[in-house]
Amino acid sequence: MTQVVTLLLARHARVAVDGVCYGQCDVPTHMDDEEAAQMLLTQLEALAASPVRVWSSPWRRTRGPAERVAKSLGVPLTVDARLSELAFGAWEGRPYATLEKEPVFQTWMANWQSAAPPGGERLAELLARVAAWHAEAIASGDRALVLTHAGVIRALRAEARRIPYSDVVTEPVEPLRLERAE
């Protein structure tokens, strides 16, 4: 008999910075870790979901609430860098208003599907690391809560639907709202 694996995904709380490229920067959120964790726990209870593991990216906006959820549920927490947002390299922490004036940024925007930001990663690298993590998570057989980022969730949506990332890139990913991924 095949075990059904359920991965419940959630994006971190809304960040408290506006107009900044923050990909893999540690930035604050508008909600403290305990409040964010409670929102996730309430949804888990409403779904009668019982994760046996919590996964998180290493960034504070995901890791803090994930630690609290794992502790509350009495399950292990696995922090995995493959669940990180796209690395924007030299652009991390810089205002978009400044970046948009730079020719290298404009060139990247025209070629975002294949180019990498200076010192950052290409979309293909994000998709490959997320796919590798997903294969491992499915192979484990664990029912799990995954606290991550919009880019990762979109990558998993595209993989599940077998469509290009470009088809999901504009789809909203609401903060702290659970969605299933298989």
Can you summarize this structure?
With 182 residues, the chain is α/β, with parallel strands linked by helices.
Task: Explain the layout of strands and helices.
Blueprint: E1 7-11, E2 20-21, H1 33-46, E3 53-56, H2 60-73, E4 77-79, E5 94-95, H3 96-99, H4 103-110, H5 123-140, E6 144-148, H6 150-161, E7 179-181
Parallel strand pairs: 1-6, 3-4, 3-6
Antiparallel strand pairs: 1-7, 2-5
Helix pairs in contact: 1-2, 5-6
Describe this structure in words.
This protein is α/β, with parallel strands linked by helices. It has one domain (7-181): Phosphoglycerate mutase-like (Rossmann fold). The chain contains six helices and seven strands, in the order ββαβαββαααβαβ. It has helices at residues 33-46, 60-73, 96-99, 103-110, 123-140, 150-161; strands spanning 7-11, 20-21, 53-56, 77-79, 94-95, 144-148, 179-181. The protein has a five-stranded mixed beta sheet with strand order 4-3-6-1-7, with helices on both faces. Helix 1 packs across helix 2 and helix 5 crosses helix 6 (150-161). The chain is globular. It starts with 6 loop residues before the first strand and ends with a strand.
